[in-house]
Structure formats: structure tokens, C-alpha cells
Amino acid sequence: MGFVFRSSAWRFGLPLKLATTALVILACCGFTPSARPSARTETTSSVLASAKAAIAKQTGARLSLTVTSSSSSNTEKITRDSGVTEGIETIALGAAMVTIKVTPSYAYISGSSSGLTTIFGLSAAQAKKIGKDWVSFKAGTSEYSDFKPGVTMSTVDSVLPEAKGTKTSMADVKGTKVYVLTWTVAATSSTPKTSDTLTISAVGAALPIKETASDAAGDHETLLLSNWGEHVSVSAPPAASTISYSQLTG
Questions:
Q1: Spatial CA neighbour of 159 closest among 188, 133, 197
Q2: How far apart are CA 109 and CA 130, in angstroms?
Q3: So where are the chain's domains?
């Protein structure tokens, strides 16, 4: 059986709109239009360029994603601490839970039986074989190449939208100025139209703070970005507690 990951598209650093999406009303989060004009006028392109450059200088960050769906009573929560070459992520979907670790040499996954089957698509027999141990994926394998970008800093800037079709304004959040970027993603044959909002600090480095999104189906998503510049150090599980993916599928 091949490896199939069934969780949020954000896990692999893909645009948030490919996962279930949401819009959190700004007034509920303390956002109010700025009463004072900005000292300088920024275009959407310049804000995005500054944000991309600021992200590229960071050694680490924490991303916390909450996804609710009108079609499910379960809330998906993902917390990720990303470093340049390593990172750790925890995914919880109802009672199902998994943890992913990435080091320069290996990626590892572990979790509850339901997490391994419903989130990662493993069989019940494989989940039973893993038990409380960790599955390892060696650097250089295709599976490792799938994990690493989604857990490290290399895809964090995927939260930034395209400049075309994005509007930028200013706001105050508890006395701190931020850029507020808004845009929509057109509906496709399989996904409804989504509305997105991203706030980026207008003081100091132009780093993203929060992204929210929603669609007409009632799905909601909130992504918080914090701990910019943190040092992320990931320890590998004990060798005695790991099983290689090739052994699991062989």
C-alpha cells in the first residue's frame, strides 16, 4: 500500500485555499479601520515584496491552523514549529492525532491508530504494527521530499497571495498598525468561491500575523503566525522506537 496523506493541503505548504477555508470577521478580532493615515503609501506589490524578503530572513516560525467544516463536527487543528532544515508538526482531527518530525537526515511520523489511518491513509494492520513507535523516512526518498517542505521554513511564504486581485488597506490592531490584504479565489468544479484576509505587520519587519478565509459552504479557517526567528531543534526518536517505511510496506 502506498503512502497517502489525507489531511489539510496546508500540511505540504500548498495555498490555504486548497484546504477547507474561512473568514473571521475582523471586528471580532479587534480590527478597526485606521483613523490616521499611514506615514507612507504602500502598494500591494511592495507590501508582498517586503513580506517575502522578511520571511526569507527568519530562522523559524510557529504556524497554528484551525479548520472547521460545515460537513463535519470535527475541528482540525495543526500546530507547526518550522526551522530552516527541521521542524515538528502536530495534527489533531477530532480524536485522531499524529505528529511529524523532520530532521536533516530523516522524517518521522507517529500517532494514534485513528490518526495513522484517517489522516495518513495507512491500513489498520499497518497502524497496529506501528503501535506507539515512529515510522522513519530517510532523506533522499520521495516521501521525505514530501514531508520536508511542508514542515520547514521553505514553504512559509506560500501564505502570501498574488498581487493581482489583492487589495491592501491599513488598520490598527490594539494600537499597532498592520496592512490588511483581502482577495477572493474563484470557484472551481470542486471547490466554492473563497474570501481571504491576511494581516501583515506595518511596524518593523513586514511579517504575516494572521490569515483567515471562508467559503459559501460555511467552512472556516484561521492561521496564526508567530514566534518569528525562533530556533527550532528537533530530536530524533530513539532508534529502538522506529520502524522504517520500507519495512512497514515490505
A1: 197
A2: 10
A3: 21-249
Read off the C-alpha cell for 222: 484561521
The 3-state DSSP class for residue 248 equals helix
**pTM of structure:** 0.82
| 33: number of Cβ within 10 Å | 10
Is pLDDT at 30 greater than 80 in this prediction?
Answer: no
Could you give phi then psi for residue 242, rounded to 5 degrees?
-120, 155
Q: Which CATH class is domain 21-249?
A: mainly beta
Given a contact cutoff of 8 angstroms between Cβ atoms, the answer to whether 225 and 159 are in contact is yes
As a whole number of angstroms, the distance between CA 139 and CA 236 comes to 13
Query: Do residues 139 and 105 touch, judged by C-beta distance below 8 A?
Result: yes
| Tens of pLDDT, residues 176-230 | 899 999 999 998 888 889 999 999 999 999 999 999 999 988 899 999 999 999 9
